[in-house]
């Protein structure tokens, strides 16, 4: 599965979009504190809306992320790489 993160940082606020199988969705809540990031994306699926929660750590040109669905018990590990 491939996702595209278009991120913009202003101070500790993170905004942008996440695109993938569920279309393009805006980041609802994003924060950056040092090398730690967190963001929430609201996605629509089958007429229902759910929140996908991402938490990660920046390391050079990569962000190691863990994605969980709000209220879910499964997680997925992702690595986002900066496109140059």
Order of helices and strands: EEEEEEE
| Terminal residue distance | 21 Å
How can the largest sheet be summarized? Answer: 7 strands, antiparallel
Which structural class should the secondary elements be placed in? mainly beta
- The shape is globular
Radius of gyration: 12 Å
Count the E strands.
7
Name the average pLDDT.
92
Number of domains: 1
**Order of strands, widest sheet:** 1-2-3-4-5-6-7
Tally of DSSP helical segments? 0
- What is the helix content? under 10%
β content, as a range? over 45%
Task: Tell me briefly what this model is.
The protein is an all-beta fold.
How would you sum up this structure, described in words?
The protein has 84 residues and is an all-beta fold. It has one domain. The chain is built from no helices and seven strands. The protein has strands at 4-10, 13-20, 23-33, 36-45, 48-59, 62-69, 75-81. Strands 1-2-3-4-5-6-7 form a seven-stranded antiparallel β-sheet, with no helix packed on it. The relative contact order is 0.17. The mean pLDDT is 92.
Describe this protein with a few key phrases.
0% helix, 84 residues, mainly beta
How are the secondary structure elements laid out?
Blueprint: E1 4-10, E2 13-20, E3 23-33, E4 36-45, E5 48-59, E6 62-69, E7 75-81
Antiparallel strand pairs: 1-2, 2-3, 3-4, 4-5, 5-6, 6-7
């Amino acid at each position: 599965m491939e996702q595209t993160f278009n991120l913009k940082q202003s101070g500790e606020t993170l905004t942008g979009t996440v695109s993938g199988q569920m279309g393009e969705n805006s980041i609802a809540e994003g924060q950056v504190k040092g090398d730690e990031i967190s963001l929430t994306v609201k996605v629509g699926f089958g007429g229902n809306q759910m929140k996908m929660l991402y938490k990660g750590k920046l390391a050079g040109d990569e962000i190691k992320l863990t994605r969980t669905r709000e209220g879910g018990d499964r997680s997925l590990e992702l690595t986002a790489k900066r496109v140059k």
